[in-house]
TrEMBL record:
This is Leucine-rich repeat-containing N-terminal plant-type domain-containing protein. It is found in: Cell membrane. The keyword DNA-binding does not apply. The chain crosses the membrane at residues 646-668. It is a single-pass type I membrane protein.
Amino acid sequence: MNPNHLCRRDESLVLQNLKLKLSIDDSASTDCESNGYFPYPKTLSWNRTTDCCTWDGVTCDKVTGRITHLDLSCSQLHGTIDSNSTLFQLSHLQNLNLAYNDFSPSQISSKFGWFPSLTHLNLSRSGFSGTVPLQVSYLSKLISLDLSAGCYFSGIIPPTIGDLTELTNLQLFSNNFNGQLPSTILNLVQLVEFDISSNNLTGNIPDIFGNFTKLKSLSLSYNLFTGLFPSSVTNLTELESLDLSNCSITVSYLNLSSNFLTAIDLLHNFESLYYLDIGSNLIQGELPAPPPLLFLFIASNNNFTGKLPNSPLCKMSSLVILDLSNNSLSGVIPKCLVNMSTSLSVLDLHNNNFSGTIPNNFGKGSSLRSLNLRKNKLEGVLPRKLTNCRGLEVVDLGENLLNDTFPKWLGSLPRLQVLSLRSNKLHGPITITRNQVLFSKLKILDLSYNDFTGNLSERFFNNLKSMIIEDQTGTPLTYIGEVRYHDSLTLSIKGQQIELVRILSIFTTIDFSNNKFKGDVPKSIGNLGSLRGLNLSHNSLIGPIPQSFGNLSVLESLDLSWNQLSGNVPQEVASLKSLAVMNLSQNRLMGRIPRGPQLDTFENDSYSGNGGLCGFPLSRNCGDNEMPHSTVPDIEDEEDSGFMDWRAAIIGCGCGSVFGLFIVYIIFLTGRPKWFVNIVNQHINRILLKIEAKRRIEAKKRRRHKRRRMKF
């Protein structure tokens, strides 16, 4: 042996002896090409006169010269590897790959457990047979174990396999394993891929998935499993592939939401399934036919396309919750979905590409509580038979192509809390005849971006009884919806479209913006003491801002911009301590802007486009003869020119707290921390600028006062 060779002489002899025991057979690696590998006889390059570290398939440690990797896959090898093989003398091996050869009828030797440094062992498609020896569990550093297809392993999967706690890849498919799946597999918490399909495993699947937080691929198909499928599968938050086909297991509850699944099929095989949530994945293609006994089916936030499977859906007589929102489904909405409304409580198809008209066969005795068809391409008129759904709480038909008049007939629904018809082609006036009591439970009404006309009726707002209740102190915070499904809603807040993924039951808002309303702003709006948001912008409203708005004690957002309002900004508005957002721009308002803790936090853009307004924060002075009496007490003279108005700072902090509560609510419901950070930073900067401006004004007043005293 050449002393300059890196390879150790003893290990070179081991490989030479291994080569002598095996022969070359072209048919031994026939599966290689079909699996993307090129077969060739690597051992032909094993020449005793050369350094074994340069031989095909051999890798050595560059310092010690020990053989650490031996890859003989697709080497067209034939022969037996038994316990007497010199292979097992390579005690420093870290990676051993014998795949795609023919070592039949070799029995797998217990000496495969003699490699203490082994991290990868691949015997797939190599013809080994027999039972897996317990000694395999000695391979404590093993990361990948592949004993799959083309082998003939039998017997039970040894429970000691649970000792291989570093395993990330375990492939045992296409063998003859029998018995039960050992519960010790639950120790393999590092698993990323686990495939035991196509065996003869029996019994219940043990509840082993609770800690498999890294698992991406799981296949249990083509076995003889029975019993219930463990609910701990819902902990598989990284799952991309799941195959349970051709088993006899009873799956009643299956939650695979918020994973990375890209495909799912054969759902109808799970005839006992009553709960299925595959929402928030990456699943593409047509929606698979769901099992017939489902009471909950959620497939939202995926990439499903095509039409709905009408026939299977129409047979789901027990369905209570159906959520297919945020996909790319198309076609017309099947009438059968409305026919099953005696059981159906939630129908959510929003943000798809459905077209045609909304079915008008809602039957009497309907259990429908929530109907969300927002953001589709639906046209025609609003279905009058919705009045048969006496339990309706939420109706969201916004962002479609509906062409109709205002559906005052929906006001007869005794439980209706949310009505959104935004961004359609609705038109005509909003009228209510005398003595009609409509919309008494309504808390959220959005008619924005339509073509409604006429005057706003005082009588209409007097009907909104649920918005009149002001004192809700001690009311527990609850959400509209139910335990397994939460209603969502898109709102316009400060000019931004925001989707609330949950709706607080105490949240009340009215949005009539971007229509053609005219006439005066109804004074009766001021009676809605629980109102938190009001948007009447982009209309043709005239007259003054009602003084009754001072009664809206919890109002947080007010937008009256782009109208033709006139008169003064009422002093009563200055008392609104919760007001966080206000826009009165582009009107015909005049006079002095009132001062108050909240109004002092707003900038010029809240009042721009009103040529007659003056006073803080505008640069337009109202004149000394009209010097206002500030709602903030005068500041005593200070000698220090660097004096800071700390009372103004306290006012800023107070309004910041109110603004903060409003924003935290929005953040919690939208999950947009970056937007939150930007808004808060802007708000803090505004407060600091106002404090500095106040300081300068006070300093100027003190200097003028001193000059006057010097004259006398």
